Amino acid sequence: MDKKRIAGEKAAEFVEDGMIVGLGTGSTAYWAVRRIGERVRDGLRVQGVPTSERTRELALELGIPVVSLDDFPQLDLTIDGADEIDDNFHLIKGGGGALFREKVVALASRRLVIVADDGKWVGKLGAFRLPVEVVPFGWRRTVRAVEATGCRAELRIEGTNPYETDNGNWILDCDFGTIADPAGLHHSLKRITGVVETGLFVGMADTVVLGTEAGVRILS
Ligand code: 5RP
């Protein structure tokens, strides 16, 4: 059974006619977007706000009308993936590098539905290295400031160059070990000039749709 697929497709059922929907990024959100595309072909009327250029292209290929957050600043629902989900529904996101747009879109949504396989469900966050988006200018200084908050930070590389986000920034993958205080850590990192956004999504998820061997579990 493809756990990502069943989670994504189940979450697509939350989409109702007339909604403005945030379209997440990654291999699990992919299945939700695909299913929404099928429902659009069957007559569902929705408009989508993509969280990345990759998802924008996918939505357009599938015939989902794409609109901008600036035209529709209030979304009904966003469906997105996660790298880790803890008992309080706090998340680490950004494994796919789209964390900034994902966070802006999620903040604009009345409801955030997270889709994942059950391997992402953890007691405490931190086994997955925390992605932090930083401005390239002066990045070595930013790395030092980020590491001073208690981690080892590594610049994400693609090929031989720094991985570049849709916003023209770079990503630091930061090993903090177990994260005891996600909100406190997020705020400490955000105070650093050069940090654009962190992959900590604290208290934002409303519903988690988990794909398991036994089928889909919906938690809220
Ligand atoms: C992209 C993300 C993804 O949602 C996250 O990395 C999960 O991806 P996948 O569903 O492929 O495991 O945050 O920035």
TrEMBL record:
Gene Ontology molecular functions: ribose-5-phosphate isomerase activity
Chain positions recorded as substrate binding sites: T25, G26, S27, T28, D80, G81, A82, D83, K93, G94, G95, G96, K120
InterPro entries for this protein: NagB/RpiA_transferase-like (IPR037171), Ribose5P_isomerase_typA_subgr (IPR020672), Ribose5P_isomerase_type_A (IPR004788)
Keyword Zinc: no
GO BP term, pick one: pentose-phosphate shunt, non-oxidative branch
Superkingdom of origin organism: Bacteria
Record GO cellular component, one term: cytosol
Positions annotated as active site in the UniProt record: E102 (proton acceptor)
Keywords attached to this entry: Isomerase
Keyword Aminoacyl-tRNA synthetase applies: no
Pathway: Carbohydrate degradation; pentose phosphate pathway; D-ribose 5-phosphate from D-ribulose 5-phosphate (non-oxidative stage): step 1/1
Record EC number: 5.3.1.6
Pfam families named in the record: Rib_5-P_isom_A (PF06026)
Recorded coiled-coil stretches: none
Known catalytic reactions: aldehydo-D-ribose 5-phosphate = D-ribulose 5-phosphate
Functional description taken from the UniProt entry: Catalyzes the reversible conversion of ribose-5-phosphate to ribulose 5-phosphate.
Subunit structure: Homodimer.
HAMAP family: Rib_5P_isom_A
Family per similarity comment: Belongs to the ribose 5-phosphate isomerase family.
Protein name (Swiss-Prot/TrEMBL): Ribose-5-phosphate isomerase A
Organism per entry: Cohnella pontilimi
